[in-house]
């Protein structure tokens, strides 16, 4: 390993400081986590200083790393791998360190950037929260975990980061665990992802068995060996790929383990925007992208004649069912959650059809506009709808009063729908195009349908939120207060401070309620006086700009392929047409893109019209349609109940498996374990009593008393010698003398 | 004359004296028995002197007589004292050292 | 060839009679029920002893025995008997219960002594002198021995006697 490192060092001699020290990126937030835990409560801003500073530091280093990687990639394709041996066992070394290549750099930059913005956003959003410090600690730990995962040089560190993220997700979803719905949602998220994580462990073990190493990159790494076919059993590689993909299904919310993501919206909005839209949920996609040779070779992706494979099928199904469910949601965050699931389906499908570059680029662009959408939702709740996320009861007509929020929402929605010249167009359309080009026509069609549905449900959500007549909380906001300083009088009248009020808005199952005391809100930007404070709107603006312009890094129409150049070396497989190679992305043509553009336009228009009719003021035939028509009503009910999947999982599977196990375990505990313990206790006591009676009282005391009695007896026997009579003493004396004399005589004779 | 006859006589008297010391109750009788012992010792000494021809035994016998006289004097004084205090010189009664 | 002078018949007969007398008197000392009888038996024993001393040619010691022992000591004893109000006449209660122990002891002692003596001095004789008998002990020789080699014991003895006298007075005086 020394020679390897030395050679590596020599090769990296020209690599810059940032590339060599990129491992600091996760270390700084990790240190900040501990600082927040220990000192956060004493800090003037409750520990958020450490969080934000650490994220900014990571961002700076990530930016430096990106810059130096771009430089590096001009002349070398080698990733910069450094690792120190953490633990050695039976000849296997488990290292901890960094693996810096294009994919890692992109993810590092993305995660640190989004984390920084979200943390700044959170200082305003969770201001006054009862667990402010812990919130920032968890956010920082999450960032540390994800950052350490994306630059992991081997599967062990990867899994470490994966698990830390899962833990933080649990902690953050259940941030307001006093409400049972929130803690249930957190548990559901954790257990569902855990179910998938079995696949991760099994898959990793299989990879170790196949390749004998857990290193991802480098000459002897898994990717290289898989790409060159240096393994024994293709079958086993396929099963390893399937096992790993099961973990991705759980983590990235693919069908059938997608049920946790919408429920995860119970967490605070910054959590939803950071974890459950842009960064954590793409960890599954990242895994597939990172170990792509394993999947590509194992599942025979792009082998001539293949039209379906496991990853693409799952991705495709996910796209459709999630998009369908987004239509029947009243909670704005749930709409965005299902949208996220759907977009993750796109990414997976892209990877499944061999469109590695578009899929990874979609991770990149999706992060910006989805995060922006979630932050907008949070902004609305914070300022416009009195902490409510229900579009039907508490939103509407907010576009005039919240211009920044409105325009960034619009921009991000257009990017999400894939409207040309916004970022989503360059990434999502590439996926659809590649699917068709790589002979996975079915998935191309699925992608198109998905695009239509995306446009439609987002338009519905937009209409409900920003157009029409203001309702409920929005009505209060639009008609009432100019500034949003919650003073005491206002609080008593309008809203319950703890957010547990039921008469103002309907009881939401999993609801982002603020648990805070009335506080002064921050200052909004000067050109939007009624919008949210600047800590909220500035991140929105930044993300909105990126939602437009991030796509131009890989704009196929203009033949700008910088992104591709920088990440090409991370694919693990070369471009080409032969088996074992990834097909080149198709050259862009407006004609090929036309179907999707048309469908998007159609979706937006139709949805607008229908929304206006259904949610508008005048009575018309479309309103209440689902209640009147039996078929539509049944379909609606089916969708509202999320295809009864939740009922299946919790009611049937969990109950059948877990409850008997729990009962059996309880029985074992009460009868076997407690029985043993009690028996031991009773046995010990009986033994003690027996010992006391027989050994202590009889034997020991008997011996003691006996010796005393013996002594007394002996004394009594010998007492007559001391008669006090001189004649007796004399007799003894002379007797002894006589005996001695006798003895003497006998001895000497 | 055999030396043994004198020596055996002495031994006999000695043993009789021992018996008397052990048996007699009266303190004065005990002292008498002690005198018997002393006399037997004297006989021994003088017999050996006669056999060996020296005179040391004679001197020793004289000394014994003198000592015996002194001893009897003191002994009887003590007996008198005991009699005065206890009104009894029966050795059976003088068992204060009984343990 | 054994001459009559070798056997010393007269001395042996004399010895025998006196010895018998002494033994009987000794028994009287230790077994008599009368205190005064016991004391007087002792006188007989002492007289017999004096006669034996003469046979052993220790005339000075014999005379001293009579003078001191019989003359002084025995008188002292009788005085003691008188002063302690001993029962004059028969006294049944004169022996304690120790006879059981004492007799065996005394017998054992005599047995051992007899065995040793017979074993040791089997046939040794007291040498006869011309004129029949042992060599007389010269009084001058005795006095020489007393005042020369055994002077120190003599002085010690005189101190003992002095102490005894003073002690006896101190002990016995009525104050």
Q: Which tags fit this structure?
A:
heterotrimer, A: 749 residues, mainly alpha, two-stranded antiparallel sheet, 30 helices, B: 99 residues, Helix Hairpins, elongated
Explain this structure.
The complex is a heterotrimer of chains A (749), B (99) and C (175). Chain A has 749 residues and is mainly α. Among the domains of chain A are: 153 residues; 259 residues, no CATH class; 49 residues. Helix content of chain A is 67%, strand content 3%. About 5% of the residues of chain A have low confidence. In chain B, helix 1 packs antiparallel against helix 2 and helix 2 packs antiparallel against helix 3. Chain B has one domain: Helix Hairpins (Orthogonal Bundle). Chain B is an all-alpha fold and 99 residues long. Chain C is mainly alpha-helical and 175 residues long. Chain C has two domains: 89 residues, Four Helix Bundle (Hemerythrin (Met), subunit A), CATH 1.20.120.1200; 38 residues. Chain C is built from seven helices and no strands. In chain C, helix 2 packs antiparallel against helix 3 and helix 3 packs antiparallel against helix 4. Chain C starts with a helix and ends with a helix. About 3% of the residues of chain C have low confidence. The chains are: A mainly alpha (749), B mainly alpha (99), C mainly alpha (175). At the B-C interface, helix 1, helix 2 and helix 3 of B face helix 2, helix 3, helix 4, helix 5 and helix 6 of C.
In angstroms, what is the radius of gyration of chain C? 21 Å
Strand proportion of chain A: under 5%
CATH superfamily descriptor of the largest domain in chain C: NADH-ubiquinone/plastoquinone oxidoreductase chain 6, subunit NuoJ
Strand content of chain C: under 5%
The largest interface is: B-C, 71 and 89 residues
**Helix count, DSSP H or I runs of 4 or more residues of chain C:** 7
Helix-strand blueprint:
The complex is a heterotrimer of chains A (749), B (99) and C (175).
Chain A: H1 2-11, H2 17-20, H3 24-39, H4 48-72, E1 80-89, E2 92-100, H5 102-125, H6 132-150, H7 155-173, H8 180-211, H9 222-227, H10 234-251, H11 260-263, H12 269-278, H13 283-290, H14 292-298, H15 310-326, H16 332-352, H17 356-384, H18 391-394, H19 403-417, H20 423-437, H21 441-466, H22 472-479, H23 488-493, H24 534-549, H25 562-567, H26 590-615, H27 625-628, H28 630-640, H29 645-718, H30 726-748
Antiparallel strand pairs in A: 1-2
Chain B: H1 3-23, H2 27-52, H3 56-86
Helix pairs in contact in B: 1-2, 2-3
Chain C: H1 4-7, H2 9-31, H3 35-55, H4 59-83, H5 99-120, H6 139-147, H7 151-172
Helix pairs in contact in C: 2-3, 3-4
